[in-house]
Amino acid sequence: MVVLLLKSYCLIAFFLLVSPTAQAWPSFSQQPLTSPPPWANDRGHNELFIPTPGHIIPGKKPLQYDKKRHYYEPHHNDAVYGTYKRAPCPALNTLANRGFIPRSGKQITYENLAQAARDVYNFGDDNIMLVLVPAFALHPNQTHIDLDQFADDKVQHAINCPAAPARLDRESGNNIDLNTTLLDSLLSFSKDDETLTLEDMAEHHHLRHNQSRAASRNWQFGNSDATCALAQYTNLVGVLGRNGKHGLQTLYVKDVKEFYLSEDLPDAYERRELPYYAIEATQLIDRMTHHIGFQIVRPFPSGDYDGRDVEPVKALYEEKPGCVD
Prior knowledge:
mainly alpha, two-stranded antiparallel ribbon, two-stranded antiparallel sheet
């Protein structure tokens, strides 16, 4: 009962943090901002997509923003002097490099971070919660957060997970900066040298899973870890995917490369009309696990962090056709 109450408290507090109109708890909702973001609006939630007879299926449209205000100015994580902070996530770093959140990457309000994710990526409110609720709970008594805190010891196996596509595990070294060798490996899994399918990325993830497993002294990869690791691939499809040879969410190698290397919106980027909700992400994750040969248990069972590994070492696609154990 105590655990349930604590979880309920964190969830309620999060809603107060990410909603600019929240007035219930002055200690959260009325905290003065050190620098009120001029780009924030009062919506505090995803806008609806309302179909019309002439526009039934939601697609993508060019992102409209003030390019003079949101000019591109890249920075890297400065662990020594702390002038700039960056996250192990190109999507968050892009928001900072473009000034949708403070360019320093420091002292960012949860409201600002949530609204920027909506405005730029149309990231669904439930997906935003999956990141910011744990971040808030694991950094108690903080109404602001620095980007590098999305990679610190507190959030391991929560919002920073092993087997990331293009970054080392925290146990193995620098888990914030891009590892270009891993990025090259990801891009090389394209079977047509132009696009990355979910199956391509499932196979790359499985390689990363086995690499991380071999390098770890205390390996664990429960259902929560698997979801977190695979979401880093499916979010690329949900956010960067555009109309092409594989449908409305074709993911292009060129866009992925630009997104990771520059930590900026690709030249061809278009914003979703329909928010990218967790149910869509779950469907994409399940396609990847089906290709590998396992299934994520939901809700996550008790003991999910007991050191188990829910992903097989040998994937289903690696089995020889017609082979029977």
